[in-house]
Structures are given as structure tokens and as C-alpha cells.
Amino acid sequence: MLFRLYRITQEIQLGNYPGISDLASILEVSERTIDRYIEALRDDFGAPIAYDRKRRGYYFEYPWSMPFSGLSEGEALALFIFLNVAERFRGTPLEEAFNRLGERLSLALPDNLQMSREEFDMLLSPFLMPLAMRVDVSETFSAIFRAVTERKRVLIRYHSLSSREVSERKVDPYHLYNFEGVWYFCGFCHLRDEVRDFALDRIEEVKVLEESFERPQDFSPQEYFNRAFRMYRGDLVEVRVRFDSYQAAWIKERIWHPTQKIEELPDGGVVFTVCANPEEIKRWVIGYGAHAEVLEPEYLRKEIQEEIAKLQKIYHSDRK
């Protein structure tokens, strides 16, 4: 209702003397509803609305704008952040809906807190999207979103990066999510007989089936995400990593995972313990170079040694 009141205020401020039928058409409501809105503006907000019989429309007896009392700078900033969230849905069927909602929400800002997109971008970047989609996933997103909402099974042709093969799978889609700018959904894969993650840009074909499914009552998206260090789930093991004093400060100041434990060492370093997928931890540790050393498990130490040996072979060879 609040945004419809703002819309009525806007139309009257244009000075075109809109009548009840005009406002009802603009807001797509009944004339009786417009009557109630006009009364609410007068009684609840003190709007100086008057009716001009000659022009058959409403006007303000003196300059007036819709009040939005008590909106702090922090609350205004929170509203701007929400308006910015539409960027996450660019290229999906929800983009237009988010943009329309953003336009309505922007009406809630008083004149002294209005800000252009350029001004907001100079002030704050609430969401960084380092990865850009190379494949248009709008149709796939629409199909998966409908399947998640209606709890319908899907049949997909999926290109797996691990196997480098395309397979056909029936999946019960549980949840859609965005990670570093890429859209995924998780669901029960009947081919693998377990819950898996699927990147929408690697789905070559998708068909929403008439078969229904029941999402497990104990499924929680947050708990599911917490099982991964970043993205990889399954095959979780306890990994211990020693970071030297140079890197320790960075490691200590963040909560990397709910299972993490940090032991401080006399030399200023730390031992970081976490329960995670070893392949994902291996990639993470290698990124820190000589500042990180896997202590356990032993097989992971050997895998990293083999990786280092391959790197040495590459960088010690003469370039032609």
C-alpha cells in the first residue's frame, strides 16, 4: 500500500489534476480503493489534497511530499544495497521484476537522500561479481526456478568438467544459488544417487518433467553450504595446515569455515584445522605458495609435492 500512496503523490505532483478513474487505471485498482488511499493520505499523512471540480482532479493546496520520517543514513544505505542486488539477477527472468521493484523502492527515499547509480557506485560496492557468464542462462534459469518452486523433477544434459563428458540425468532440484557470479542449483541426482551441484551454464538441455518430488524435511540450504569450504562438498576430511607468521595475521582475522580451529605457534605462525574437501583445500593452500604447508593428511602432502614438482618442471624448462 505504501508504494501506491507514493505513486498517487507523484501523479498529483505532476500538476495534471488526475481524477479517481485516472488513478485507478494507473495503479490497476478499483475506484473505491483509490478513495481509501486518498483518505489515508489526508488522515494518516496530512497531505493537503484538494479536489478541483472544474478540472475534475486532485491537486495539492501547497507544495508537499510524502514523508518518510526516521530514515537514518544507515537505513537509506541499506535500501540502496537492496536496489543494487538486481545486478545479481541480470540475464535471468527475474531481472525485470527486480528492476521494477527497485523503481518502487526508490520512491521511499526522501529528496535529500536521493542518489544516482553513479554516485552509489563511487560510495560502495556491496557485491563483487568477478566472473561474468559467457553463456546465456535465462531460459535454463527460468526452467530450474519453476521446477524448484513447483517441486518438479528435471531431465538435463549436463557437461561435467571433472569427467569431461556429457551425461543425461534426472534431478530433483532443491535450491538455486549464486556463487561468484555463476548460477548453480543443488538437488538429488538419480544417476549418482546423492545430492549434487550443477552449474547452469554447463546445462546443455533441460526439460521440466511432470514427475513430482518431495524435498527432504531435514534439507537446509545453509547447512548444505556449510559442508563446503567454498564449493566442493562430499569426501570431507580433517586437514591441518601450518601458515607462517607472515600469513598468520590474514588467516586469524577471518572465519573461513564453521569447523575451523586455529592454534597459535610460538614463532607467530598458526596451525589451521578444518574439515573440508581435500581437492578444494589443495587448491587453496597452493595459492599461498611457500607461506602454507599441509601437515595432515599425508596423502594430501604428497599430492601437493607432486603438483610442485610439475610446476618446477614447467618453470625450470627453457622457453622456446
TrEMBL record:
Residues 236-311 form the WCX domain. PROSITE patterns: WYL (PS52050). Transmembrane segments: none annotated. InterPro entries: CBASS_pafABC_assoc_protein, HTH_11, WCX_dom, WH-like_DNA-bd_sf, WYL_dom. Residues 20-58 form the Helix-turn-helix type domain. Residues 139-208 form the WYL domain. PANTHER family: PTHR34580, SLL5097 PROTEIN. This is Transcriptional regulator. It comes from Thermatribacter velox.
